[in-house]
Predict the structure.
Amino acid sequence: MKIVCIGGGPAGLYFGLLMKKLGAHHDITVVERNRPYDTFGWGVVFSDATMDNMRAWDTETADAIEASFAHWDDIELQFKGRTIRSGGHGFVGIGRKKLLNILQARCEALGVKLVFETEADSDADYPDADLVIASDGINSRIRSKYASVFKPDIVTRPNRFIWLGTRKVYEPFTFLFEKTEHGWFQAHIYQFDDSTSTFIVECPEHVWLAHGLDKADPEQSVAFCEKLFAANLQGEKLMTNARHLRGSAWINFQRVKCEQWSHFNGSSHVVLMGDAVHTAHFAIGSGTKLALEDAIELTRQFKQHGDRAEHIPEVLARYQQERAIDVIRLQNAAWNAMEWFEVCGERYCDQLEPEQFMYSMLTRSQRISHENLRLRDKAWLEGFERWFDAKCGVQVPAAIPPMFTPYSVRGVTLKNRVVVSPMAQYSAVDGLPGDYHLVHLGARAMGGAGMVVAEMTCPSADARITPGCPGLWNDAQRDGWRRIVDYVHRETDAKIAIQLGHAGAKGSTNAPWQASGADQPLASGNWPLIAPSAQPYLADGQVPRAMTRADMDRVRDDFVRSARLAAEAGFDWLELHCAHGYLLSAFISPLTNRRGDDYGGTLANRLRYPLEVFAALREAWPQHLPMSVRISAHDWVEGGITPTDAVAIAKAFKALGADMIDCSSGQVSAEQKPTYGRMYQTPFADRIRNEAGIATIAVGAISEADHVNSIISAGRADLCAIARPHLANPAWTLTEAAKIGYTGMAWPKQYVSGKSQMEAHFQRERAVQATKPQGST
Ligand SMILES: Cc1cc2nc3c(=O)[nH]c(=O)nc-3n(C[C@H](O)[C@H](O)[C@H](O)COP(=O)(O)OP(=O)(O)OC[C@H]3O[C@@H](n4cnc5c(N)ncnc54)[C@H](O)[C@@H]3O)c2cc1C
Ligand SMILES: Cc1cc2nc3c(=O)[nH]c(=O)nc-3n(C[C@H](O)[C@H](O)[C@H](O)COP(=O)(O)O)c2cc1C
């Protein structure tokens, strides 16, 4: 085959040499506009795993790289006068120039033609090529030319950064954070040869502008950074090798992805590779890794399916199929890591102590969990756990995982951080909780969670979602609840909360297991609905009446009566349900509140009634007992509530004495398009906790102890609510403790003989796991 690579960066060069190795008969040319040594940029970094992959494909290149790279295991944070270091992170760094020279030399040795100082104007310049590799970097001309085919999606990010170098040698991968009068700056520093380190300085756009850096030339920018990091540099200079750039050398990261990676131009197949098709933020390692792995994958496909011209269409299709999955995974992780650095000045730097800040930073991509950190550096993690335990007032010889530390608020102490999330059971009769509820909630209270939240309970009969929803508007219901609360208090050391909520427009419906399904109006026996506006939840659903002020008074007073009855029943905690499109949530969201009076319009107006109800409850509910508010922190619909609104909502409830925000999302509009995934709502709990300064409960697809430990340790939430896993296993917390080898849980005395058996079972499983090879990223 005749192959032309446009662009002699890592992608083009490495693919050239791998293909030449696969078949010496291939005629391969790499066209590069620069001279061989004419490149800028400092060190590039990739993981040990990438090195292993490269070694499998070309030992000579891997050997040459290995002879020249700097390897480091440790990550060091210098923050607020403290230095914290953790190990086991396994990365290599190499100068970009050095890497290119190694690849160039290897290309030449194998017979790949290298054409320097030649600008390739177009793929059409090579009509006799069977395959054109568009490895022409982030500003790929070929990608732009066929934009309608490749459909690139390019996002420019808000932070500014500058690539610098220094002769100061940093042994660990180092992060520095410095506060200025206008905000925080951070530096990402890694060594890449015996005498040089890359030194990337980053800050938000507004901080950059406030310092006048938009007007600074490269020399002035370097001087600014030297002064900012003077305490660390100790007289060493920073260097720029972008002096030829006009204006500012500070750039914004651009995230590139493409829908289609290849195209037939009429005479040749053209395929994108490396930065031309995708970019990865430096917060997670360099795009070099992706570029090299692209080259490997395309070669692997030729090896597998044949390396003749007729194989090209199939090979290119499979190349995209295979690579797109890995790339999206890495881009997602890189996105989280990038966002962490974009918001850290606002959200974490001033809020978190250095120990927790380090933990948060290490887990920023959300790919590294608590147990991964234990594998990387057991001593560091145990030190962190001990620090965390001490913050929670725990003093025991062996460190306790954060999930199992107690949490106190007002007069209540939960024994650990796990909450059984409220789950409607639709099994009450006339609002009366009965035997079903006693067994359901009792079993879960015995299962190890710190607190069990009873399902949404309604302040009046017409506030129910279904006829099976429990209520709390009369003494019989209070006594029904008291029986359950007494059981929980007598037989377990868990706390029990009630969640009060009014269904609003989502009332008068079927239980989900009935033939017509959830949210569908009852076939008969419907009751009139009220809501902020006369708008049904489902387009063909029952239309509610817009509430009058008299309705508001009545509903507020119903809530207050329920709170009083809940206190009499002995509940430890009250949660006000302002989520999921029910009455109070419907007031908050602009999608469901179309009122033109003081209760509609601005967010402050839309919050007015829910806040009024909250304030009345706070007064009626005993002062020594906590109150949380569940909100939908994201409507997942254009024009609906956003996480930014959620911070303002949380602040408003906090000002009236809310102790916690339970951070759910969605179910406000049938048009919602949520993005589900592991711990998918935790970012809302994180943002609210650290921006509104109020404790939070994270909920949603939290399914393992490892998730809970990571969330609590990083300060993303204070408690974790677990719903569906508790339907399958009432003893979820006891099981998860045994799974991770934590034996400090007290089991119900009647169940104790099951404890050691379960612990032994999981210990054997862990021993088997430990014999299997571990991945290193
Ligand atoms: C100059 C530079 C410095 C960098 N420094 C670092 C760093 O220090 N650390 C880090 O982690 N990452 C760095 N990166 C980013 C990282 O190296 C990239 O993710 C990685 O290089 C991607 O490899 P690539 O081969 O796809 O693209 P690139 O490395 O961008 O290579 C593309 C090549 O194509 C050439 N080219 C473009 N258009 C044409 C044309 N029309 N005709 C001929 N040649 C053309 C360019 O000159 C360039 O050499 C840098 C990138 C660049 C371009
Ligand atoms: C059967 C069921 C009933 C639910 N009922 C309620 C409820 O009454 N009140 C509430 O706020 N959330 C309710 N939810 C939402 C859960 O509390 C929780 O937020 C959601 O299931 C996500 O957590 P998970 O991924 O751990 O299941 C319910 C969820 C389920 C599965």
Remarks:
- The mean pLDDT is 94.
- DSSP finds 25 helices and 29 strands in the chain.
- Residues 705 and 736 are 6 Å apart (CA to CA).
